[in-house]
């Protein structure tokens, strides 16, 4: 009986020990489970917070994008209007500000007005201006003396009843006088004469919308020159 009683107590002790160990393992498992669950919940909470933050960022970025798009559209509209205004100003400038040949004419007009030329005189000249017609109907020719330089006054030859005067001088020496001749063409309506060196000399002269060709060339006689002028009409 004593042996059975001792065996029973040993079994009871082992069973309590096993139960204790089982309880400890269960407690440990429960603790780890609680820790895992707590971590899981914390992870879910953090994930939700992060998702909420990202959603807030997306919303903010969406609003910023809409603002940028609106600003971009406004800038495009402003750019279009600026280009249209620039084109309008350019057209107005081109219409109001002369360029090319017209600009040169306006500048010449200003010079003449600054030189005390009356406006009505300029207007009359403009009214009389017409396309130039070349004179080729007949030619008048005259001979003149090429005056040796320093030996008296040049003797000009007269054309168009004195409206055009042509004279020439040449230095004495072995040089060819045709190459060294100093030719002077004086027009009654021009403030300054036309000067040229050497023969021949060709010059276009316009009077009353008629263009005449003046030619100064060597004569067949040494020391002389010939001048010819084309005129309109028949001989």
Q: Can you walk through the features of this model?
A:
With 235 residues, the chain is an alpha+beta fold. Helices cover 52% and strands 24% of the residues. It contains 4 helices and 9 strands. β5 and β6 form a beta hairpin. It starts with a helix and ends with a strand. The mean pLDDT is 84.
Provide the descriptors you would attach to this structure in a database record:
235 residues, alpha+beta, nine-stranded mixed sheet, 4 helices, 24% strand, rod-shaped
The chain-level mean pLDDT equals 84
Radius of gyration: 57 Å
- Estimated structural class: alpha+beta
Shape: rod-shaped
| Helix-residue proportion | 40-55%
Instruction: Give the percentage of residues in beta strands.
Output: 15-25%
Number of strands: 9
Regions with pLDDT < 50 over 5+ consecutive residues?
Answer: none
What profile does the largest beta sheet have? 9 strands, mixed
- Encode the helix/strand succession as letters: HHHEEEEHEEEEE
Distance between the terminal alpha carbons, to the nearest Å? 180 Å
Short summary of the structure?
With 235 residues, the chain is of the alpha+beta class. Helices cover 52% and strands 24% of the residues.
SSE blueprint:
Elements: H1 2-96, H2 101-114, H3 119-128, E1 133-134, E2 138-148, E3 157-159, E4 164-170, H4 177-180, E5 182-187, E6 194-197, E7 201-207, E8 210-218, E9 224-231
Parallel strand pairs: 1-8, 2-4
Antiparallel strand pairs: 2-9, 3-4, 4-5, 5-6, 7-8, 8-9
